[in-house]
Records
---
Amino acid sequence: MSAQTEAASTVQELTQSIGAEIRLSDISKAFGAQKVLKGLTLTVRPGEFLAIVGRSGCGKSTLLRLIAGLDSQDSGTIAVGRLENPFSSSGVRMMFQDPRLLPWKRVLENVGIGARGNWEPKALSALEDVGLATRAQEWPSVLSGGQKQRVALTRALMSHPQVLLLDEPLGALDALTRLEMQQLLERVWLRQRFTAILVTHDVTEAVMLADRVVLLEEGNVTLIHPIHHVRPRPLGDAELGGIEARILSRLLETKG
C-alpha cells in the first residue's frame, strides 16, 4: 500500500468512526407536578466531548436517560445523527456511577455481554487497552472500584458506539483513581472519537475533559462555556483554573 493510499484509508477510518450529532429541541419532562426539564434546546456536535454540570435536581441525569431511550420526554424531539435505531448497541451506550457488572460472570464475559460472533479476541484486546488483560478470567468481586469502572467502560465501548453517555461514572472513586480514569477516558475518546456527554458534579473534571461545559439550572441551559485548550490538559493550569472559577461562581449564584 502506498503512503498516499494508506493516508486516505486512515482519513476514511477516522471519518467513519466519528460520533453522531445530537439535536435536542424544546425538551420538557415532568414527574408528577415536578417539572424537571423545561423546553431545553441543545445541539451536541459530532465527536464532541460535552460536560453537563449543575446542582442536584436540575435535570442532568434525566436528560441523559432521555437521550439513551431509557425514558421518554413529555414534549420536544431528540435526534441522534442519522441512526434509524439510535438506541441499539451500536448507537448509544450509557455508563453509570455503579459499574453494574454481573457477579456470576467473569471479567471477560462481562465485557462481552451482548456481543456476537467471535467476540473474545476483541474483548481481550479491549481489556489490554485499559490494563486489565491479565484479569480477564477473574470475578468482579476481587476488583477494585477503579478496575470495575474500567471493565464497565470497556463493555460500553465494545460495539464502538457513536454516542457514549456518562452519568457520574467516576463519582465514587478516590481522587487518584478518579484522575487516572479521567486520563483513560480522554485517551479512549481521542482514539475512537465517539460523541461523549458527561454528567458530573465536579467542575474540575468537566473543565479537564470537555470541549464545552453546559450549566443546567432549573431544567434549562443557562450557560455554555467553550474550552479551547491543548490535550492532554495540564493539572494546575491557570487558564483552566480561571474557567473553573467562572463556572463555579455562576453555580454558587444559583439558589439551592
---
Amino acid sequence: MGIDLNVRNFSTDSDGLVIENPKNVKKAEKRLAKQQQKLSRKKKGSHNRRKQKVIVAKVHEKIENRRNDFLHKISRYYVNNYDLVALEDLNITKLVQISGRGLTKSILDASWGKFVKCVTYKAENAGKFAVKVSPKGTTQDCCICGEKVAKDLSVRMHLCPYCGSIMPRDYNAAQNIKLKGLEKVGWGTPEPTVLNTENLNTLAEIRTSILSLSEQVPVNESRISQL
C-alpha cells in the first residue's frame, strides 16, 4: 500500500481510497479565537481569568483529541489491512518554511509527522512493514511508463502524453510511493493499475464512514498552566 499525504485532502492511497482532512483546527478557529479574546480581557490573577483558562484549554484539548483519534483510526486501518505501508519521507519542517500561510496551517493541522509515527509503531508491533521512501518524482513521474510529466499544484489530474494514462495526480503519486516501497523491501515491482475514477468517490464515502471522531474531552492541566 502506498499513501500520498496532501493538503487537498488528508490522503489518497494506491487502492483509490481518498480520506478527507477533518481540518480540526480550522473548524474550531472561530470559537477558539472568541474564547482567547475573552481570556485576554480578564484581569490577571482573577478568578474569572482562571475560569476562562479552563474554557480555552477545553477547546485546545478537543482539537487535539479529535486529531489524535482520527490519526489512530486511520493508521490502525492500514496496519490491520496491509502487510506493507509505504509513505513519503517528508521534511515537514522544510515544507512549513517554504509554504504560504494558508498551506502552513493546513500542513500542521493534518499532523502528517504524527500519522507516520502512528503507522510505524503499529506496523512494528504487528510484525508488518512501514517504510519511508524518497518523495522525489512521486508526483511528476508517470506510474505507468515512468516518464516525467511536469505539473504544478493547480493541476489535479495526471495526463501522460507518453502512454496516455489519465488519473488523479494524488493517485498517481500513491502508486509511485507503493512501487518505491515494494522495491525498498525487495518485494518486486508489479505493474500498477489505472484507477477507475468513476468509483473513487464511492470508495471514499464507504470506507471513511467507520472513522467517527470521539467527542470526549479530558482537560489537560498542563495546558491550562501554559495559558
---
Amino acid sequence: MDWLDDVKWDKDGLVPVIAQEQGSNDVLMVAWMNRDALAATAARGQAVYWSRSRQRLWHKGEESGHFQQVHEMRLDCDADVVLLSVTQHGHDPSVACHTGRHSCFYRRFDGTHWATVAPVLKDPETLYK
C-alpha cells in the first residue's frame, strides 16, 4: 500500500499541514498539501504546499528565498493533519509568514480584540519578486 493512501484527504484532495520550528517548537504556519505536494516534500526534504489561491504547487521560499528544510513528517491519530518539523531558512531571525514575521500566529486575543504581538522582521515588499 502506498504511504500516501494512509492520509485522509478532504473532499478537495487536501490535508492541513502545520509547520513547527525544530528547536523552539514555535508553530510557524498552517498550509495545505495535496498528494503531489506531500510526495514532493518527502522526496525533496523541503516543504512543498498546495496553494489554494493560485491552484498550483508552491515550493515554500520559491519567491522569498525562505525555504523550509523538513526534518520530520508526522501524521495525527485521525490521519487528517500533517505536522512538519522544519528549519526556516532565508533570514535570521527566521521569517515564515508572508507578513515578514517569524510566525503567522502573531495576533493574540486580549479579551476584547486581536492584538499584534510580534514584530515585522523583514519588509514583506522585499520578500517577493
